[in-house]
Design goal:
4 copies of one chain form a homotetramer.
Chain A (H helix, E strand, L loop, with lengths): L2 E5 L4 H14 L2 E8 L8 H8 L4 E6 L1 H14 L16 H15 L3 E3 L8 H12 L4 E3 L1 H4 L5 H10 L6 H6 L4 E4 L4 E4 L29 E8 L2 E5 L2 E2 L2 H14 L4 E7 L5 E7 L1 H17 L2 H20 L5 H13 L5 E8 L2 E8 L7 H4 L12 H17 L2
Parallel strand pairs in A: 1-2, 1-4, 2-3, 4-5
Antiparallel strand pairs in A: 6-7, 7-12, 8-9, 8-13, 9-10, 11-12, 13-14
Subcellular location (chains A, B, C, D): Cytoplasm
GO cellular component, one term (chains A, B, C, D): cytoplasm
Subunit structure (chains A, B, C, D): Homotetramer.
């Protein structure tokens, strides 16, 4: 091992990993730090990396790529894992993997490394996606290798190796394991390890509680083109800007909190809390614009495919051919999914109250309870029912 | 046609149908009126039927059968149609059909009749479910036969045939086409025929608006046994009582409103508004108890089957063999779905905040971020990832 | 109704229909006759049409379009209906519908007409596919309208209207209802209406019986590019030529006979016999080339989608958006499905005996039972199994 | 490790394993040898085990349990893996695992052991199924642990430890890795490792080649009750006897050979040849009896579930809850799958030529091409088509 590209947050854990890699493998370490909307400055990572003698330092703003090429395609599918989870962490990993592998090629590194533990889904996501892009890449997962199994031993290691520990930050540190990006922030561990115990109100960071949200509802209009939001309240916006704007709007109205027990790919159940402000609105609104513009059976096919699609992303198979096949089917359905959705935001509630489209398949003329002037012949229903019933009638005689 | 059993609500429309059947077919009419939790007295239907000379009058309280044998099994499947609709109307039709056909047999009738129009789903549901039980039954759907196509012509018919019209009630009548039972109340037509227009606040009947709901949240605990709720806040209750209790709790907190455009089986899109107070809580809570007690792949199989299961119920195939096959699979999964779910109700929000079970598959020992004493060997993850990656690596070389 | 385009075979039945349309609707009739490989001359239809005073006569050779745009895409999906049927009739109907509607537009006709009965699938396929292309098209299905319910009454009608009946041909006529195109010939009716009775040997037309096939096997090599056969035994061929060649080869070896009871879309079961010589080889060989070149999960996704895909084609939904979505997914998987398959033909058997590809995902180095030099680390299997087992172990304690 | 139960064939490899376990773990070894129809005597294993000082020796005839509780339920599902493979090896492993774990409990053993390598599916099947039954069981897979990586080193080990090697048998030994049971015999390795090379004719053991099969076809009748064969040519038989009889019949007619490249669960492709004589007939015949007695949508649901069901068995998840859920659905469909199927066997071909049942859903009255006396109203088809077309027509205007 000559050179390793490390997914580096600038935090204590990945700083320790950088040092540990240098020591254990006597290799050069290249750091890669990305802004994917986690809400923290990424530039400070440069100084910290330099302090450890890192020479090749990659710091990149990937927010637009993340929103456009990962989050938006996923929302075209109305993806939800296990009926609840909007896949906030899962969808960010393939992008990081992709850049790690690309940078490894650029700098001539033989391996990549990440700070995910051996119990979670993220190691799987990082590694499967990396292997899918480069069969030969080597991957170092320090948490599965080293013997630093407690926070204490980590701090000892940091001290021993002169890694700067911001003790003030450490002591104020949330007791939760967290992950954040444009789509969500997640919380695991500590009190949450008892699934009967309610999450503390101070845990949540991106949304006010519904109780503290404004007493007045707010209405917004989302413009869709081919399945993607392109404007909010009439103002055109880039994908990342759409998400940032919706995060603020939804967060202010207490929208997007979730508390679940989920099934990890590695076989265990875990409890997680999530704030997905923009995503919560995006899912509802996308379904609404589809309800008007998407053919029934196309919509139902999407619904039947969705659980598998969501599972693939959750399990780390974004760059797998079966996900790409499904995406081809999903994208083929979005050609006419354009129009405007009106949404009411109020104390945790996201309510679709109106939807319109030039491509609407809703025909008032046909659907009306009033006289339809022959647009629909009620007599047709008899034959329709009779032939749908035929097999059931034969079976009832069996 | 000698004798026809009519699904009779006691309202004006089905009274006209009763008369029309008597006149058109010169047949005896038997009325069947059921209490399935629609929230209106059913006894008044007796007097009205008698006034029309009906001799065989069936009035039945089917609330427990409806909740126990139809709603509860459906909620074991987490059924949602098109991502939103909880199937409130759909699930009531098969029970009515079943009783119509059974009564027809008891009274020696050759046909049954219902008041559903030729444009909607309900005609299909009534008829498919009836044919599935009795291949030979004849079905009269007056709305598809007669020429009374406007409200005016109906009123004329009523007047001409001395059917009592409560003009006060008619004038106060909601402009919406409505349907209600223990699970929901629905609204269609009138202003709703423009999907861009927001529903009026005075339309909603079973829930307060979130804005008018109490400012203080309420916590409830739901006890599950084998996938069904058997107690609320520790008090054992029958299925119908569970639903009535939850309807009141949820309704008071503004929970369960829905406004959607849906795809009818007969091929058109229609806009509907729904209040499903109990059902909204039941879906969330059932998923929560499953999250703790149901195996991952069993849960995912249920999620993959669900869209088709929901579609079958929506389309009127409750008594079809494929629904029964799916139910067998679903019920087989619920053996250990027992425990307690804690839910917070607040201004339209249903939030699961805790879940516990003697059958929990959540292992804190394994899931913990702290030292797990070897319960889980992180080294296993490497082999797991490597073999999951093997096909992707080979493919990346292709 | 001013002008009607009729799908015209030149046979007695559609000649009667042409006359009946002229008489019943006093409209101009345009005939459309296509060569889709049914093995009969199409030019004679011109004279017959002219004899009835038809002025606009369309006669077209659609064999290449049929093979390239309909049969080949379908075989990329390995489509089989109900585990047996290769969809020979189903896949030809959308092409005919498409041309009928296109011609109607060209000649300014308001309607199209076909000779399918009211009991079968073909009426549904003709009409759904036509409506999917042109919402406003009118469709006349004489068999559902007229009162010519017996062969006798048809002959009377012919005589009365001076439609030439080739009595010799009629008397020699097969007692079976048949349909033929490049992909298959089908037989229904007569003796076959008893599903216990074996088909007579003289019924079959395109294949010799296995008993009469050569005693020596024949080997052929099929070259695939992106999922389609492009050469046989090294000779490049067009899609239709591929099918004609395989029909001859397979037919000579007694390959492709099938005798089944199937479920029609209109609700009844029917018994059909089919000869699908080329198709039988194409299905086997396509699976074989995929077995070498297609990723496992891509292949499994295709297998999961296939029954629904086949059902859509069987039911007449070729031009429906859900079929197009599935096709997008399927086609996306075929990029690397190239190579050569070696097939042995012998007395009814199609046996794949070899397959090779430049895109092969088969790695002898990894798969070998011999020493693999570390290409695969057997230790990885332990972790793989352990984590796959984790949920099962937790469940066994439940 | 005090005591280990070993799946013991009596052959050289598992004899070496027995010795290796004794030496490596200094533990007592219990051998378990089962007759599952592999066609070899199992009693000789006793002497060999005794010679190694084994004290607890289990030798069992599991043929009936295997056929009745594993093979037959699987054939109710028409299970095929990847369109071709009848799962002969896969379905035997869970039974062996179950007995290993049960015996371990009886004799107080802490572990079980098997002779499957670290590259194949069988290790996964043995171990997942064992863990699913007993969470605490320990499993020793010598092939993943020891350093005996070549045949030579195995022979050395045998010699060094006085394990009797029947050199005559070894030298005559097939070059293929084989596995056999009532359902099939499989061949892997050696020449087959080149997927382009045709299998040698002398490899096949259970079937004559089609070329050498009788020149006269043979007809047999299979009686089904609730989805299972209960009699052949009118003679009632137990499940195992059914399979033995069909194996002989089919084998004599050259039926059941298969040569494929398949995708292993561990991520690689491998080439395998299989003889599945009875199974080949059973699959065809079961589909035929279902074609007559099973409702269309029940059949289609089974077809949609099947690929996943087959994959579960292939991957080793027989005792997983999701397989049990699917089995519940499948079994629920078989209530009326009773009747007789007539099959023609001829030189490799299995042709269904007739099927009859008291539960037949085939209605000649309805299906007939002749006058049906009004059993089916052709006019119904118009409404049926019109409403099925409605969404397509609206879409064509989009």
């Amino acid at each position: 091992m000559k050179k390793v590209v490390l997914a580096y947050s600038g935090g204590l854990d990945t700083s320790i990993i950088a040092k540990w890699l240098q020591d254990t493998y006597s290799c050069e370490v290249v750091t890669f730090t990305a802004d994917i909307g986690q809400g923290e400055e990424v530039e400070p990572a440069r100084l910290k990396a330099e302090a450890m003698g890192i020479k090749e330092i990659y710091i990149e703003d990937l927010r637009e790529e993340f929103a456009r090429d990962f989050v938006f395609p996923m929302f075209r599918a109305n993806a939800i894992y296990e009926g609840e989870y909007l896949l906030g962490t899962s969808i960010a990993r393939p992008l990081i993997s992709k850049r790690l592998v690309e940078i490894a090629k650029e700098v001539g590194a033989d391996a990549i490394s990440h700070g995910a533990t051996g119990k979670g889904n993220d190691q799987v996501r990082f590694e499967l996606n990396a292997y899918a892009i480069n069969s030969e890449i080597q991957i170092i997962a320090p948490w599965r290798e080293w013997d630093l199994s407690s926070r204490e031993s980590l701090m000892d290691y940091a001290e021993k190796h002169n890694i700067e520990v911001d003790y003030k930050k450490q002591s104020k540190k949330s007791p939760y394991s967290m992950d954040a990006n444009l789509l969500h922030i997640s919380y695991e561990g500590d009190l949450l390890e008892d699934p009967w115990q309610e999450a503390e109100d101070e845990m949540w960071r991106w949304t006010v509680s519904p109780e503290n949200a404004p007493d007045k509802p707010e209405y917004i209009e989302l413009t869709y083109e081919k399945g993607d939001i392109t404007a909010i309240n009439g103002s055109p916006m880039s994908p990342a800007k759409v998400m940032e704007t919706l995060n603020q709007l939804a967060g202010a109205h207490g929208i997007g909190r979730l508390d679940i027990v989920e099934n990890r790919f590695v076989g265990m159940k875990s409890r997680g809390c999530y704030e997905t402000p923009a995503g919560t609105i995006m899912l509802k609104a996308h379904r609404a614009i589809e309800s008007l513009t998407l053919d029934r059976e196309a919509a139902h096919l999407k619904d039947e495919l969705m659980p598998k699609y969501a599972k693939l992303i959750y399990n780390g198979f974004w760059f797998a051919p079966e996900r790409e096949m499904m995406q081809a089917a999903i994208d083929a359905s979005q050609e006419n999914v354009s129009g405007v959705v009106r949404v009411k935001l109020y104390k945790g509630n996201t309510s679709v109250v109106g939807r319109k489209s030039d491509n609407s398949l809703f025909s008032e003329k046909i659907a009306t309870f009033e006289d339809d002037g022959g647009a629909y012949n009620q007599k047709d229903a008899e034959g329709f029912i009779k032939l749908n019933a035929l097999r059931l009638r034969l079976k009832s005689l069996q």
